[in-house]
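S2.1 Query sequence (G-protein coupled receptors family 3 profile domain-containing protein)
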Amino acid sequence: MSAQAALGRSIVRVVILASCWLPVEHILCAGTVVGDWITCSVATDTCSGSGFVCCIGPGDAGTGKTTCRWGGSGTDCVVTKAPTTTPVHYGGHYNLGNTGSTMTIMTKRPYAVYEPYMSAFLATYPDNTVVSFVQQSTDAEIQSDTASYTSVQRGPDVLQWYSGGSGSNKLIANGNFRNLDAMFKKYNLYEQLAPSMLKGGQDANGHPYIVPTDAYHWAMYYRPSVWRRYNVRPPKTWADWMAACDTFLAAGITPIYLGNYEGWPAISNFDYFDMRIRGPVAHMALLDGQQPWTSPDVYDVFMEWRRILDKYTRYQDIVNGWSTPDPVFLGTAAMAFCGDFVRWGAPAGFNMSDFDFFQFPIFDPGLAVGENAPGDGLVISATSQNPALAEAWLAYLVSTNVSIARVKAGDIRIPSNVNAFSSISDPLTLKGANMLRNADYITGVGDREVLADFKAVYTPELVKFLTYNYTGDAIRAMLQRLETARVQVYLHQAAPPDITASSSTTTTTPTDLISTKPVWVNLTTVTGGTKIYFTLDGSEPSDAAELYQGPILIAQSGRITLKAVTVGDALMIRSSKVSQQTFVLNLDPPPTFLGISVGVAGFSIALAIIGIVYALVLMALVQRYSREPILKAAAPRFLQIMLVGAIIALTCGVWMALDVSVGVPYSLSSTSCMVNIWAISIGWALMFGALFAKTYRVSSLFQAFEANNLTVKAVSDETLFRIVGLMTSLELLILVAWTVINPLTLASVDLGNAVSRHQCVSSGGSSVWAFATVSIVAKFAVLIAGIALCIQTRNVHDAFNGASDLVILPPADQARLTTAVDMTESKKIAFSIYNIATFGTGAFVISFLINEQDVALAVRAVGLFLSVVITITGVVLTKIYIIFYDKEMNNDKAWDLLSVSKRKAKGATTTSALPLTSGINRVTPATPVVPSALASGSTTAGLR
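Output structure tokens follow.
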């Protein structure tokens, strides 16, 4: 019975699935039954799940339901009961409700290519045998889809794949592909298929997992007429090749042309250099992640490639050029490295009989010969639901008769079946087939051989090697980047730490780093989310060793071996290999590092805490007794501002003690440099601002006091708040500019004679005194202004005492006037300014002249403590003392100057005094007046 008759008696269903496959369970949604099929519209029929669209599914006919699938074009989907060649979108493993066999094929070639062979194949199988085709369009789809769909339970049976490479090895090792050893024996494929094409898809036992179908070759293409003109023969050895290049170079012809469209022709060029110089076995091991890229022999390959590129090769069109060698067709280049696709790009009318190729020259005759022949293959999923049918189809497709038919039809160029070579009519294709047949190994282009994550690094690096003319150290750096990627992608291991040392007197040997001065060492790794641990005694590091947190100082004479390891999450990435560097330090005299001891650091922190607690207690007392007359008169809000400033300033005692020499992390110690400046500046602005504002009020109240003239002004709290705000804003402006433009950071400073210390320095490279000078000058200017106000008001008390000669007051009233004026705090404020300048500023200036860090910190801590504590004691605690121990002073009457007197002049009358809040009160000799009572509020507080 003929195949056609058999086909007529069977109901064979071939469904073309021209879309991506998603192995999901059926999700049903409402559809519309139309005759013998079902349609659904994405506009009206909905599916559950994000990204799913409504579509007919096999087995849904007559159910009033349809199947949802992921993705789609947004158009209606239709499938009929009869065979059709109309593309049908459908996702998910299916069954049409028949009792026969089913098989799904995923391939990048259209169904029309397979249709003649599939029809003949299905003619021998039972009724209702169904074959579905899913077409892929890109290599990326093949790489991602095949890996995904062979890992699910109900995916396609037959899938497109390449002839070998790292991706194949990984999927074979993971059990994604079906072992085809029994199939090869059953259908005698070992005898029919080229052994060299099988090697890329076999496991360690030689069992095949990939059925190669066809391939094309790469070689050196040339025009024989051009070579004859210069009496040059196609070379077979490396030496002959170089001689031919020299001949063409002397004749003014570019010896070698290398197109590099999208980077992959250059990758294939490297494949050949590596296979010829190191051998195909080493090359495949390199691409499979089994060998390090930093091996010296790999570097030698790149250096030889660079030599030939620089001397003989044109590749200026590296970015925009095609892989088609137009200069070879035109005769301006002697040869080009290309795949056999080069013939497709021949100019119109070109005589193809004047076009040939020769095998890439042999570097070492003792090595096996490898050839690049990107080949297509097919695999069977390990979870195939019908492996017997899938095996039968693959054996049929690569059989001698079908291979011959496909060659004649032009579907393939070089078949994997060696028995079909005789059917190749094209001379160059046959020549390429025999070259591959005689090769020891067949590999694909490198970007197909490596894993996708490594390809993302590999391809750009090789393109940059060509574009930027890498050589020497640049090649070594590139190989290190590739090695880092290899370790992470193939070994799932963190990259080892890079060890870099800084010293002006460092020399290196193959094993040691030698220095006559202390060395700072930095450890870095390119692997994110990891930590570095290290040892300095030569022992093996682990996560139990010291954690790297900042630069390491090696400041001890002798031989010191540093070892470091990158440690990652054991579930995702393993710890790296150990990096090590030996340092030989010859220090004379022995280096001395001036650090801060734990005891002195604790002393500084303790003083700061005591001062802060003291200030907090005073703040609580001022708040608690703020309605007491003496505190009301002293403007309690400004006392609180001054105490807040004191607390901020006192925190410097903590920040100054945060040094790496006492175990503080380097990053925190470095940050404290700028925080310390902020704390002392803002604290000073608030403390001194409050004092300055109070002095300004006294000065304004008593601008002049003459024998017959008392000038009085009232100054509101709001005015004083503006003064404090202005001083604080000035400090903030300086601090923000300093922090943004040139912040301080911690660094080790060499003091000479092998002595160093940590010091806050400018991170921008300019002097640390630039902004420091601006800050100091601003503070000094305000200090001068404050001192001037203190001088102006220093005799307010004496002036009022002198008033007794002019004003007749009863003794009790005179005592009250003296008391009120006594409470002007100009002298206390003047003393506070003197105290800050002496203990505070003086201590900080002196400490910078002291190299011994313990002594310097102690001086700064004591100076800070005394300047702040003495100031708040003199201004605040004295008033608290009066509240508890001097009731007469803490009395409203003590602040009532409502005393009327008469001048000594006879006949003088008494006039009731005007309140101070009335502005300026002038009293004529005939009507002597003394200041009126200062009630509560801003006027009374004004005397403070």
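The radius of gyration is 46 Å. The chain has four domains: 3-23+92-214, 218-369+451-491, 499-590, 598-918.
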